[in-house]
Amino acid sequence: MVPTPPAKSAPSPPPAKTAPSAPTTTPSTPPAPTPPTLSTNSLTVTGLGIERPRGAKGSKLTYVTGLMQNQATNKRFGVRVDLFLLDQAGRQVGIATDYTPVIESKDSWRFRALVLDRRAVSARVKEIKEDQ
Questions:
Q1: CA angle 48, 50, 54 (to 5 degrees)
Q2: Quick one: DSSP state of residue 132?
Q3: Rounded Cα distance, 87 and 37, in Å
Q4: pTM of the predicted protein model
Q5: Which of 31, 83, 84, 122 places its Cα 20 to 30 Å from the Cα of 97?
Q6: Are 93 and 87 spatial neighbours (Cβ–Cβ below 8 Å)?
Q7: Cα separation of 50 and 64, whole Å?
Q8: Does 19 have pLDDT greater than 90?
């Protein structure tokens, strides 16, 4: 009996080439903290911030802006948000208010309350009221 030569195996594929990785960079500033959320009676406020609109030449108007969501299945009437205005040290320097006649069920309202004190750099919800 004549020995049979061993079976040839298929050549293995060359190792896959990977694209050179892009250099990683670390952000020079840490990410902004998540804005606080307030929820009361199915109304939720998120995204509070101080806004100084651009484009109105010479304007020095400043606003507190945010989003109020009505998570209830019924309309909300005469909704008012009162906001504490805080300075750099976190001290209260005033109050800002905005009002909407209605927030539909499962809808939201982008409020914009006028800030009258230039020292204000942040805001916190004081209270949310609505007509009964």
A1: 130
A2: -
A3: 20
A4: 0.68
A5: 31
A6: yes
A7: 5
A8: no
